[in-house]
Amino acid sequence: MKKNYLILLLIVFTNNLVASDTTIVRIHDHTDMTWNGNYDEWGVLPDSTNDYRKIYLHYTMGCATGGCSDWDYTTQIFVRHRTGELDTALNEIIKEYELARVITPYGSNLSNNWEFTTTFDITDFVHVLRDSVEIRCHYSGWSSGFSATLDFEFIEGIPARDVINFENIYSGGHSYNSSTDFEMTTLFPKKFLIQANSLGSMVKMTTTGHGFDNNQSAAEFKPINYYVKINGVQTHTQYNWDQNCGENPIYPQGGTWIYDRANWCPGTKAQTFKHEITSFISSGDSLEVDIDFEPYTWSGTQTPSYIIECQLFQYTAPNFMNSAELVDIIKPSLKDEHKRKNPICGKPLIKIRNYGSSPLTSLQIQYNVKGGDINIFDWQGNLGFLETEEVELPNLTNWSGSTNVFEVILKNPNGQTDEYDDNNSMQSEFETVPEYPERFVLWFNTNNGVVGGISESSWKFLDKNDNIITTSGALAPNTPFKDTLEFLPGCYTFLVEDTDEDGLDFWANNDGSGMVRFRADGGPILKAFNADFGTNIIHQFKIAGTQNIENNTEHLNWKIFPNPTKNNIVVEGFSKEKPVIVILDNLGKEVFKKKIEKAGFISEIINLRELEKGIYFVKITNIKSAFTKKVIKK
Questions:
Q1: Do 338 and 249 form a contact (C-beta atoms < 8 A)?
Q2: 114: burial class by Cβ within 10 Å (0-12, 13-18, 19+)?
Q3: What are the start-end ranges of the H helices in 544-632?
Q4: Whole-prediction pTM
Q5: Judging by DSSP bridges, how do beta strands 425-429 and 468-471 pair with one another?
Q6: 604, 589 in Cβ contact below 8 A?
Q7: CA nearest 277: which of 234, 320, 310?
Q8: Are 458 and 497 contacting, i.e. CB atoms less than 8 angstroms apart?
Q9: Which among 219, 225, 242 has a CA at the least distance from the CA of 291?
Q10: Does the bond joining 562 to the residue before it have cis omega, within 30 degrees of 0?
Q11: DSSP states of 204-235 as a string?
Q12: Quick one: pLDDT at residue 617?
């Protein structure tokens, strides 16, 4: 039995810096998942001495040692709980509870050192997350592969309510042969005993649909509802669908990454839907739980299937009446899950939750950059117990401070003292937005995608108050545009939208390719955007005043595109001295070298057609500086 007890006091996983009341334990450290099966490891978690207000699982997925797989495969993280009970064969009964589910991204375009961290709130599983535990990583893939690193974060304190008991209702993968068969053999009604001291209950449901080679494209691309019934009465309806795949923070990918799916997107977490049923339980009595899927019929070569993990939780009464919780800082943030929304110079975005039994109707929110001016926002709303809301805060008076750390404190819920303030504050490290000159040129090339003869793609610039200051309007398809823009000092948002949610360059359509770039007026590229962006581009930047392009371009990154490439690459940038471009293979062998016989703006097309597929390094040097970037030859 392998036991690891690793306390990582210097790592920041959630947006709050790790404090003395926090313990982090790593179980699975870059475990390679290279073939369909289970990967088990033991570890030692904190014992039951302390209470914990939060337990997080930070699941860092990476490429396996040999690189990432090209395909989207299901990964699941289970805790394998030893019950101490024996079955009829005198073997100890092990109950598995799913803690996390992430379907892998299409990994063909990902570098071997790619990693992405997804965070799961697993606080309610506290009773099986103590002492020695066995943690299983399940990988459904038939090719190598991905890696799993699991960090369990325990934050001491008092939870919103205490867990008394939990049980699996449904668990496993199931074929959808027909609606009747599915309801009779998989989602049939089940009865449970409500404990005598239980005063609250919740059903948690995580289900993802898979398979699509049939006339319904089910279950992967089939949006349906499911219905929760308690004691024969329908209490909840849930739309089991993720409609935001085109805004995936892992992009671009290979495959059909932009297509919305049955509660998952390639590379991101499957959503766990929470259904409060407290008003339907009676302490000491039995409870029947039944979940029905919206029925459909199908025909074709591939049977639809669903992976279902569903639990019934029982709780004590709430521990507080009047309390608020700061759940997350979404903007500004360095968290992988919020990459699409960051960095910012505009309005911050946070997530709050009602931590008390009384409705939360007002809240004072204090926020600032550490060491900077304090801002105050008075929030008003109406949140029931454990309900959440994303709150957009007004612009900061300024983003100056002693360090790039954003701080938030919640105060005075409902105009009263918070009964529990340990979860009222949070910090988030951030990076600053790019700074551009007051005058630059937008290069925008539409592709062939049209709706009603008009390009699917358009752009606009917004000021810090979200007022439109200039916009493209309707654009003609397959047309290059160059717009010279001038800005006053301030914070701006550049927004590109695509009505078909397939960007300007997506392999699985016939729309061709487009382009989006910022260029200095008569100078180098300031920003080259990836045209395979899905739904939108959201890019915040600031104009701080007049910039001398010639004096600043030495600090701008060289641009190398397309990357990955099948044939040519373009190397563009600015050099005050005559540069040399060298290309090295993965072993450091020089395969290309060219000395450029001029200084200033450089734009070179380099033919890689004769090179083998693989990883190469483009190195650009002059007598004062050097720049190296990895390029993938497909």
A1: yes
A2: middle
A3: 549-552
A4: 0.85
A5: unpaired
A6: no
A7: 234
A8: yes
A9: 225
A10: yes
A11: EEEEEEE---BTT-TTTT--EEEEEEETTEEE
A12: 84
